Write a sequence for this structure.
């Protein structure tokens, strides 16, 4: 038995939860249920509260990925550590969204107490909605994520929502979000630009890059990154762009 060969309860619990998840995905539902129960029994033996919360969070996440949403939610409620509980609920919300259970996913996401995990869950749900062709609904959820980041005064979160919108092909939202973020742009703005460039074949992507170029004047590094984006978009003009960069530095 696997549990007998792994001495550490936390490691064993994690291993069993992954095995159970794999079993459930190939249709072995009853067998998966038994393995999940064994993983849970091991996790509950862990005396350290933080380690126990971590183990329970991993099991809840595996349950959600295996489609056992109700069980995952009940288990998440038992996680004492607020951060790990919020992380588990984020995973559950994402799994629900991927399964097309958007209404339930939103309910879970909006109930997440930690602002970072809440806005991340909302962004992931919005991404899943776009993939499902629910573009207008996704826009509303992206705005909810944006508002959550604003309330938390989370600069990283704000840029994360902008990047997520860009990756989803909602270029106008990505631009609007980016233009409304005040503060340091050196690290995060390039990621939004890269996401737009990666989708350059899709209508509106090039225009979105151009509309964000004025923001690149924040620092030399972002200005150069903007020039690199232009080279990717217009390789025939790479030489002339390179000459302009030489004049800048």
């Amino acid at each position: 038995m696997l549990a007998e060969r792994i001495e550490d309860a936390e490691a064993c619990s994690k291993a069993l939860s992954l095995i159970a998840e794999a079993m459930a995905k190939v249709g072995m539902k009853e067998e998966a249920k038994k393995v999940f129960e064994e993983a849970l029994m091991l996790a509950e033996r862990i005396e350290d509260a933080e380690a126990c919360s971590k183990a329970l969070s991993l099991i809840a996440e595996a349950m959600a990925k295996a489609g056992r949403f109700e069980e995952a939610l009940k288990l998440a409620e038992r996680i004492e550590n607020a951060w790990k509980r919020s992380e588990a609920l984020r995973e559950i919300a994402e799994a629900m969204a991927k399964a097309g259970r958007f209404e339930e996913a939103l309910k879970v996401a909006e109930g997440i107490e930690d602002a970072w995990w809440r806005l991340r869950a909302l962004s992931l749900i919005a991404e899943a909605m776009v993939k499902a062709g629910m573009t207008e609904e996704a826009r509303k959820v992206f705005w909810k994520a944006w508002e959550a980041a604003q309330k938390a005064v989370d600069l990283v979160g704000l840029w994360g929502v902008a990047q997520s919108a860009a990756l989803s092909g909602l270029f106008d939202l990505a631009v609007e979000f980016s233009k409304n973020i005040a503060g340091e742009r050196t690290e995060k703005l390039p990621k939004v630009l890269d996401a737009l460039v990666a989708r350059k074949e899709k209508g509106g992507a090039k225009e979105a890059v151009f509309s964000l170029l004025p923001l690149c004047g924040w620092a030399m590094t972002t200005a150069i990154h903007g020039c690199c984006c232009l080279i990717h978009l217009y390789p025939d003009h790479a030489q002339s762009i390179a000459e302009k960069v030489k004049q800048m530095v």
